[in-house]
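Researcher: Structure prediction, please.
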Amino acid sequence: MFETYIKEQKDSLNRLKDNLKTTSESLAQCKVLLQSYTEERGKPESSLLADTELLLGQFSVEHEAYHGGDFNGLCCQRIVGNGAEIIKELRKIMREKKMHVARTVSLTRS
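Model: Predicted structure follows.
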């Protein structure tokens, strides 16, 4: 009776070891694929938010800490005064981000 139980446990252990080996091999393959996708994509793009902050910085518009991270009156005036230029540049940034997303999606689907 105990011999049967021990044999079943040994068989179960062997199946688990085989499963672990298969899973480890699959994980290694996934890591290789992830690395190749990362290399194909190249340096990650900056976020839309970061690019927008850089754009606003060109017009001396920054979030003020003493306003809780909001814009102060002068910054708001600069945004309104340069609105057309800011929107024009923001459209360019958004188009670039959209194209980057489209390229990334096409790479992952192929």
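Model: Residues 45-110 form one domain.
Researcher: Thanks, that helps.
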